[in-house]
Amino acid sequence: MKNNKVSYYLQKFSILIVLIVMFIACSLLSPYFLKANNLMNIARQLCVGILIAYGEMILIVSGFLDLSVGSVLALAGVMAVSAYKSTGSMPVAILAALAVGVLCNLFNAFFVGNFNVPAFIATLGMQQVARGIALYYTGGANILQLGKFVNIGQGMLGVLPIPVIIVIIITVIVWYLFNQTRYGRSLYAIGGNRKAAEASGINSLKSIYISYAINGLLAGMAGVIFMARNNAGLPNGAVGYEMTGLTAVIVGGTSFTGGVGTVMGTIAGAFIIGFLENIMNLIGVNSYIQSVIEGMIIVLAVAFDIRSKNKKSSKVIMVSDDGEEKKTP
Amino acid sequence: MVAAPMAVHADEGETYDVCFVARASADTFAAWLTDSMQKAAAEYDNINLTCVSGEADDNEMATQLENCITKEYDLVIVQSNNNAAQAPYVKELVDAGIPVITTNPTTHQCDLDGETGDEAVDNAVLAGTGTVDADPVEQASRGALRAVEEVPENANVVVLRGPSGNYHAEKRREAWDTYFFSERPDVKILYEDYANWNNDEALALMETWVQGGTHIDAIISMNDNMAAGAIEAIRNNTDYVAEDGTPNFLAYGVDGTAQGCLLIKEGLLTATALQNAEEIANLNMEYAEKVLTGEMDVTEVNDFVEAPEINAENVDEYIQIYIENGEIAADGTLAE
Prior knowledge:
CATH superfamily of the largest domain in chain B: Response regulator
Strand order of the largest sheet of chain B: 2-1-3-4-5-11
Number of domains of chain B: 2
Low-confidence stretches of chain B: 1-7
CATH architecture of the largest domain in chain B: 3-Layer(aba) Sandwich
Mean pLDDT of chain B: 90
Number of helices of chain B: 12
Helix content of chain B: 40-55%
CATH architecture of chain A: Orthogonal Bundle
Radius of gyration of chain A: 20 Å
Structural class of chain B: alpha/beta
Number of helices of chain A: 14
Oligomer: heterodimer
Shape of chain A: globular
CATH class of chain A: Mainly Alpha
Largest sheet of chain B: 6 strands, parallel
């Protein structure tokens, strides 16, 4: 009985255990890892990735995904920069980015929800479209001289970087949406079994639109922070960032087949990847080798996910942040 | 045996179809070059220019080059993504009788046959083609020669590299070995990594490297875009930039982009070397027309643009050029 309990907690908190082990290992590998500046640096570097990961998590839990997020982020970011340069207003710039993010994702939702185009294909198309528009709009050149726009990516509020504060606020909102609302519960149900969810009265089309719209808001905000951090509107920026988001989500325990995933797991996944990248850079591992190591970790994480799911029995159809498991009768 | 490319001589009033195959559209310099090619071609009534992009993908580059044969262009200008990967397809164009100018970078015979160790053979342009390029060694040597004098004794430096296998990336790095590191054995490379020409990748690398505890005395970057990313990582760090804006480090780039010039003006980038896309484009179009009208053979096209150094003393004249072409706002701040 006691063994079962230990096993239950080990399984439930496995990702946090991995994170703690990783943290200890990193602090042993480099004396600079534990410096406050470095830890703050990791948090700042992860902001864009975490926002993207939340969007991917919402979609993957409900059985979809977004391969266009890097391009949409770049398009939203350059539009925000452009709006700021035209108006000098930060709220207008943010609104422009959010609007672009939502608009692109409503197209994704339209094709995925109304035409049943696989999310992989629909968002792959949007990846090309959004990048193309960003490059066409800027002529492929970086937009420079951003003025105070950079504060949202580089500024501090007290002891915390502004982007970290933004991500903390968004984390609370996403956690609330996921765990305390009917919409959040519907995501798990749709991801677990869409037809069964529809039969039980859930409007899956509406959920798809809302999920992609939220993903768009997150991509838009990530675009603003990304450009501000780089002090330039980079139409060619964030290439491949969809993989950054997906990696954090998968490593964080979200199942690629839908129905399983948590906000805390995604944060843990993002920090595991962040610690890994940070320590590899600190000890001077070549970036190409870093890719090899990161790739291997994704495959291992998915293999672990599949294996543990098979073990745990197919009866569990959803696991949320509060640890609640819904089982089929 | 290489077939001699045949120039198509059109009758008066007839136009020539020319294709520019750029290495990528999501690349600041390639985008600048593409834009400049279009502007340069607009000056010629008898040239119809089509621009396509290989999207930094060798397979896509191959497809685009094969399409050029299918579409029977009168002349093709190729900006390779990876010289060795594109060389066989460039040769296919030559074999199909289409005049080819390779540009930024030049495609060499050794890209097709492999290096022999004989410099004269290895530096020869691919048989049957012409070239308009900038010399990456000359470009990088501008900063490297300065750095020999400027970098403090026993300095710690970091090196940001362009994509592995890219001719300009590799040659610029070699130039730093030849002109700087061999002259300054006291200098230690603290970190070196590929940021693939990208601002954001360089930013992330530099953010972590500065946590290593050792002061970085100089940033040696193979282009301005990566230098800009690295500088952004330490712009607000008082160990590197004093409150009055005085930097406590040196930084070297290549390309002389608008962003690079603004950083020199701020005092954060020490020097760069201009790689002028407009000049490269103008020369390409000038030679293309001469080849197409039979004034010269494509194999006679062999021109390299100069790489003037841009530094604090002369940066204003380059900023003025960027203000005139609209890339930099005259007030230096907000206008687009």
